[in-house]
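hi! just following up on the protien thing from before. the input was this:
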Amino acid sequence: NVSHEGAQLYCKWLEEKLQAINEGLYEIQISLPTKEQWMYAAYGGNQFAPYPWGTHYIRNKDGLILANFRRLGDESIRRNEDTGELEVIDTPIHPSVTGNLNDNAHMMAPATSYLPNDYGLFNISGNVAEMLDQPKAAKGGSWNSTGYDIRIDAEGEYDGWEKPSPYIGFRPIVRVK
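and the predicted 3d structure came back as:
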């Protein structure tokens, strides 16, 4: 819930603060990640898995959901009678109907609500999409994105980059030289 400009200003402020604390021992650079940096961190060393937790599935072997995203049920998919194409109707599943399918995370969840990837990073996919250094670009999807849209390679864009959005956050990259 911060603008792109606000995130960049935070990175600049933090960089100056940390540079002053270390008294010239290291050069510290803090910025929003590039798309490539974000994807490297998201893969967590599992470069062929579509999700940060290293598998091709959004549930674990016990059926538990592995990220915070908008769940859609079979009743949300229908065939368009005119075109014959499948369409997704925006009707989220209600937890009273689905039992444990929905974890009731209809908003941001605490950072440690789901397991980290192999690099120890939590909520790379789902929860809030993360801004990239390029304006209007985001990755990871949010709590309001579908399971397909929280894949590491899914492209994300947000219109409200000049204004804060409850679907977008940021994760700074810290380089120490």
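The longest strand covers residues 28-31.
The radius of gyration is 18 Å.
cheers
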